[in-house]
Design goal:
CATH class of the largest domain: Alpha Beta
Protein name: CubicO group peptidase, beta-lactamase class C family
Radius of gyration: 30 Å
Shape: elongated
Largest sheet: 9 strands, antiparallel
InterPro entries: AmpC-like, Beta-lactam-related, Beta-lactam/transpept-like, Peptidase_S12_Pab87-rel_C
Pfam families: Beta-lactamase (PF00144), DUF3471 (PF11954)
Structural class: alpha+beta
CATH superfamily of the largest domain: DD-peptidase/beta-lactamase superfamily
């Protein structure tokens, strides 16, 4: 405990020195604290660098809100997508070593890679991955709900990801492009992306506390927990999210003290302590416009925000007449902003343990106003006023809102009929099961309750601490079930990628185990309008049927006396039990009708 107290004292002393050495920052902490109060963030940390010097570094609020452990400049936070600049910079190193060009096709390094169509396969180049110009929408549910630690398994999903536009026709954010950059690095070096980040950046920069995995974060001292605001704006703890194989797009965890070294490197043309960490020509190119993000005139609120472009892992803007290079980050419980003003040799990093937080933007803008000697906007006051208006509008909307569901409707099937395995090759697989007469599923390890919305549409509500979270009723992700020609549920469709049609997960009914003795009761010959049909067992207790002139069909048991054809969609069989409990008839259910065959008497 004594050592802990000493450490805190030293941290406070060093922070005090930073904050008192620059008169430009006089009064800034009042603004910072106002942001902390109005946003109800658990905590945040901010650091400022100018040239090769740290001007300021300090934490506010709490790293651990429940136990009131303060956040400081060494507290680890998840930086989310601020990781992207690290990933693309690795490709800058490979280009410097003549191991690739940005005009190469990614398939040159990942031969098994396939995109949705031939145009994409033959047109997309590495540069498109770096600047979000592949024509793909985000498809984030593909990795967020169905994570994998195997990067190659995530790569195989891209074949099934539908684009919304042509290559290089529009900018659109896509995390898979950064996954591919990470895999290209792995193929070139023979080392993991994580090892490359540590070897090429963390070690030479002395970013000793920074980690590339959530496991590293969990095992570290002075690591922040993530939080969110619930429906009543109470601070609530969130579980860490393991981004797993999608790590090149956003898995780094760092402190503002460590991140100052990364800022200095970019401000100083790729150099840190006279060592060239990143090639100078790459630094200039990465911080220059490679793709237009959005067009339009400056707004009244920000008349000096005159463009919105993208480089390589960096957004590019203007801020009150100053060139701004920035990338945010958001992952469960954490938000970030890493910002450079290269013409002013200024860098600002803000990390917070609040989910989807405005804190990084507000603190960054307040800091920039003080450091750039421009007219100051009262960002804290403006946010508080905007928030109050927003909450009032939300309250009125909630009072007047009517959910869009159609009242007094019922599902078309029994609950059992919706159970089964649902799979979409570009996304993943999940199961729906019955528990206590209700439908449940599991996505990314989280238990999900399927709440009936209307007709054959259900909404997905998370189960937290053993209770269904009802706060999202009417506003949660929905799944709509469809039926095939024979009346079976065949697909569950979720609108989880807004720029393409709902994602269709194909249903496979659950199977049951049937022993050989039970199967024997179905064996025999059946007469179907003069055609003899045989049912027999082979291949280690698999029931088959044979219709003359057709191949034999293996059957999959789905319920008592009920089977699906293994190779024919929309075809099934039900053996009918008579009053004496014997099987004397079999019903063939298929798209063109239902036909009953009677058992033939043994000769």
């Amino acid at each position: 405990m004594k050592n802990r107290i000493l450490f805190l004292v030293l941290t406070l002393v060093s922070t005090f020195v930073f904050s008192q050495t620059d008169k430009r920052l006089k009064g800034i902490e009042k603004q910072f604290n106002a942001v902390l109060e109005s946003t109800k963030a658990a905590g945040f940390a901010v650091a400022i660098v100018e040239g090769d010097k740290i001007i300021y570094a300090k934490g506010f609020g709490y790293a651990d809100y429940e136990n009131k452990i303060p956040a400081d400049a060494n507290t680890l936070f998840a930086i989310g997508s601020s990781t992207k600049a690290f990933t693309s910079a690795l490709l800058g190193l490979h280009r410097e070593d003549d191991k690739l060009t940005f005009d190469d096709r990614p398939r040159k390094y990942i031969p098994e890679l396939e995109f949705y169509n031939d145009e994409m396969d033959n047109t997309i180049i590495i540069k498109d991955l770096m600047r979000h110009s592949t024509g793909l929408p985000r498809h984030d549910a593909s990795w967020y709900y169905f994570p994998s630690h195997n990067k190659d398994s995530l790569v195989t999903k891209l074949k099934y990801h539908e684009p919304f536009t042509g290559v290089r026709e529009h900018w659109y954010y896509n995390n898979f492009g950064f996954l591919l950059q990470g895999v290209i690095t792995e193929r070139i070096t023979g080392k993991t992306w994580e090892e490359n980040i540590e070897t090429e950046f963390f070690k030479p920069l002395g970013m000793d506390r920074s980690k590339t995995t959530i496991a590293g974060m969990k095992s570290s001292s002075n690591a922040a927990f993530g939080y969110e605001l619930d429906a009543d704006r109470n601070i609530t703890k969130m579980d860490y999210y393991d981004i797993a194989g999608m790590s090149p797009a956003g898995s780094i965890n760092s402190s503002v003290n460590d991140m100052t070294k990364w800022l200095m490197t970019w401000i100083n043309k790729g150099k840190y302590n006279d060592q060239q960490i990143i090639p100078e020509d790459y630094v200039k190119e990465a911080m220059s416009s490679q793709m237009v993000v959005a067009a339009g005139f400056p707004s009244k609120e920000l008349p000096d925000a005159q463009f919105a472009n993208y480089g390589y892992g960096w957004f590019l803007h203007s801020y009150k007449g100053h060139y701004l290079v920035e990338h945010g980050g958001n992952i469960d419980g954490f938000s970030a902003s890493v910002a450079l003003y290269p013409s002013d040799s200024l860098g600002i990093v803000v990390l917070t343990n609040q989910n989807g937080s405005p804190v990084p933007r507000l603190i960054r803008n307040i800091t920039a106003d003080y450091m750039l000697n421009v007219d100051k906007t009262e960002w804290a006051k403006k946010y508080k006023e905007d928030l109050e208006k927003s909450l009032e509008v939300m309250k009125e909307a909630k009072d007047e809102a009517e959910t869009s569901n159609v009242k007094n409707t019922r599902p078309s099937h029994t609950k059992l009929d919706y159970t089964g395995t649902y799979e979409e090759k570009g996304y993943g697989k999940f199961e729906i099961e019955i528990e206590n007469d209700s439908l449940f599923s599991k996505l990314n390890g989280k238990k999900i309750f399927l709440n009936h919305f209307h007709y054959d549409t259900f909404e997905l509500l998370e189960v937290k601490n053993g209770k269904v979270d009802t706060t999202d009723i009417g506003n949660s992700v929905k799944i709509n079930f469809s039926t095939n020609f024979v009346g079976d549920i065949d697909y569950g469709r979720m609108d989880i990628e807004g720029l393409v049609d709902p994602i269709a997960f194909k249903r496979t009914p659950n199977t049951i185990d049937v022993d050989a003795k039970t199967l024997e009761q179905y064996v025999g010959k059946y007469d179907l309008m003069g055609t003899e049909i045989k049912a027999y067992i082979k291949d280690e207790n698999v029931l088959y049927v044979f219709v003359p002139g057709q191949p034999e069909y293996a059957l999959i048991p789905t319920a008592e006396h009920k089977f699906n054809f293994k190779t024919l969609e929309g075809f099934k069989i039900e053996f009918l039990e008579s009053d004496d409990k014997n099987i004397n008839e079999v019903k063939f259910i298929q798209p063109n009708g239902t036909f009953v065959a009677k058992r033939k008497l043994e000769e």
